[in-house]
Amino acid sequence: MSKWQEKQVRPVLPLYLAALVWPVGALVFPPYTLGNLALLAVLSAAAYLLGRRFCPMRVVRTQVPYATGSEDVDAMLTGIVANLDALHALNEAIPDTQLSRAMDRMEKAGRSIVSVVEGAPDKARQIDRFARYYLPEVVKLMSAYVNLEKNGVRGDNADQIVRELRRNAETTATAFENQLDVLYSAEAMDISTDIEVLDSILKSQNLTK
């Protein structure tokens, strides 16, 4: 889900073929005369051209680094995208449809936040805690939930955790959306309470550190 760019790369095999002509050709045409040197050069060029013809260009995908003009902002955006990618992967592993919908909203809002800040780096300070704490905390909590499901943990405590996560995930998704709205205004906003509610759920069960 990160930003990627595609670049065509010319294969190196034609160069190897052209280079190989010299030692192999020298066995037949010793390069002691100007004529043999010229012949080897022609054969080497021909090998290179044939290699290019039969070896297509390769397409290489590389991650596009952010270039906002600030290394700190670039690092922040890269970290947010990494966490959003992790959230997306966790969402794929979650069977609960209601919780999954809330995570979809979180991811959508988060990627929109990245887009806004990428275009207006001066807004980065408004999402500092979102980037450093709130989003990573949600990833941590959802990871704990996925581990519960993966390990087949059942019982009243597990059921309560799921209910609380489901209920508060909706609130957290709304908080993420509100954080996005704040970027379009001069108002300050604190979404810590919404995240702290989620955090307290698993801490009370000793599932986070």
What distinguishing features does this structure have?
7 helices, elongated, mainly alpha, two-stranded antiparallel sheet, 209 residues, disordered C terminus
Gist?
The protein is mainly α and 209 residues long. The chain is built from seven helices and two strands.
SSE inventory with pairings:
Elements: E1 4-9, H1 13-28, H2 34-54, E2 58-63, H3 71-92, H4 97-119, H5 128-150, H6 156-182, H7 192-203
Task: Give a description of the structure.
The chain is 69% helix and 6% strand. The chain is mainly alpha-helical and 209 residues long. It has a two-stranded antiparallel sheet with strand order 1-2. The protein is elongated and about 90 Å long. Residues 205-209 have low confidence and may be disordered.
Number of helices: 7
Query: Into which percent range does the helicity of residues fall?
Result: 55-70%
Report the order of strands and helices. Answer: EHHEHHHHH
Quick one: overall form?
Answer: elongated
Which class of secondary structure composition applies to the elements? mainly alpha
- Radius of gyration using CA atoms only: 28 Å
Unreliable spans: 205-209
- The largest sheet has its strands arranged as 1-2
C-alpha end-to-end distance: 29 Å
Mean pLDDT over all positions: 82
Q: Could you give the count of β-strands?
A: 2
The percent range for strand residues is: 5-15%
Largest sheet: 2 strands, antiparallel
